[in-house]
Amino acid sequence: MENCIFCKIIAGEIPSSKVYEDDQVMAFLDISQTTKGHTLLVPKEHVRNVLEMSEATASTLFARLPKLARALKTATGAPAMNIINNNEEIAGQTVFHAHVHLVPRYQENDGIKIEYTTHEPDFDALGKLAEQISKEVDA
Ligand code: 5GP
Ligand code: ZN
């Protein structure tokens, strides 16, 4: 897609540090290198994010994660890793071509915080919400 930075990387119009490529997906080092080896896995098909992704594209994209994660772990020696995907601006998406972050983690207290606040559970509300979502899954 025109003006999409990741489409340009996939097409080779913008340089990148490529770590994996096949006919469906590509992985390259994130320019920000949050930690050493921070990698992005992207589908070659231009799609905005997971909210707009087909099952076929998701099957291929996410199927590549284990072998890529293992390779990254072996190559960097990182004992741990976060695998993160941001969808839409409020969730932190800044590049609107779907991608999955693989962030190797080397030690505790490395300054990276991925936190989810805990709320007092209201089991009645949880049940209703789960039902509401489950109705939408196959709608
Ligand atoms: P998001 O915030 O959308 O989940 O992640 C976008 C990521 O793309 C950021 O971590 C950012 O560093 C990375 N990025 C943006 N532009 C480029 C680029 O030109 N090359 C590479 N390799 N990474 C990029
Ligand atoms: Zn694109």
Number of strands: 5
Low-confidence stretches: none
Major beta sheet, strand line-up: 1-2-3-5-4
Compute the number of helices.
4
CATH names the topology as HIT family, subunit A
| Terminal-residue CA separation | 30 Å
At the fourth level of CATH, the homologous superfamily is HIT-like
H/E order of the elements? Answer: HEEEHHEEH
Rg of Cα set:
17 Å
Gross morphology: globular
> Could you say which structural class the secondary elements and strand pairing correspond to?
alpha+beta
Bound molecules: guanosine-5'-monophosphate, zinc ion
CATH-defined architecture:
2-Layer Sandwich
CATH class: Alpha Beta
- On the 0-100 scale, what is the average pLDDT? 96
Count of domains: 1
Largest sheet: 5 strands, antiparallel
Strand content: 15-25%
Task: Walk me through what this model shows.
The chain has 139 residues and is of the alpha+beta class. It has a single domain (5-113), classed as HIT-like (HIT family, subunit A), CATH 3.30.428.10. Helix content is 30%, strand content 18%. It contains 4 helices and 5 strands. It has a 5-stranded antiparallel β-sheet. A hairpin with a 3-residue loop joins β1 (18-21) and β2. The model has no long low-confidence stretch (mean pLDDT 96). The structure holds guanosine-5'-monophosphate (5GP) and zinc ion (ZN). Residues 5, 14, 16, 28-32, 86, 92-95 line the site of guanosine-5'-monophosphate. GO terms for molecular function: catalytic activity. It comes from Streptococcus henryi. The active site is at 99 (tele-amp-histidine intermediate). InterPro entries: HINT, Histidine_triad_HIT, HIT-like, HIT-like_sf.
